[in-house]
Amino acid sequence: xxxxxxxxxxxxxxxxxxxxxxxxxxxxxxxxxxxxxxxxxxxxxxxxxxxxxxxxxxxxxxxxxxxxxxxxxxxxxxxxxxxxxxxxxxxxxxxxxxxxxxxxxxxxxxxxxxxxxxxxxxxxxxxxxxxxxxxxxxxxxxxxxxxxxxxxxxxxxxxxxxxxxxxxxx
Length: 170
Known about the structure:
170 residues, mainly alpha, 2 domains, 3-stranded antiparallel beta sheet, two-stranded antiparallel ribbon, 6 helices
């Protein structure tokens, strides 16, 4: 189960969300089903556009950190590089867990689980991030290209995390 306010994972017997304090008894259905989101799958173009926007946002943060790391000593430089990596990982896991990255907001797409549950939660957000590493780095981008031929427009990272990327109804 997931909190409909913050997307945090909950146990079946939780009376309130430990992350945001939402009272579960006041909410009829803890896992929110698709409301303003359609189940029409987003195409590769919108997904690629959202990815570019997210990369630009991360570059604004990571380039100065990388520059500072190159000027720092060995230990300080490594620390700054690890901080940059943590920011990148945290960015994706956090926003995936919430169901939408800033790039996705701009192009009007969202993540949902294949059963229609939204938001996907942080566990599935982390799985999707790991799947992106596999799709892009280990498989040389084949997992992303899979979106072009899959009937549900899922990349390998979507299949690993049990997610769809869907269009938002206007």
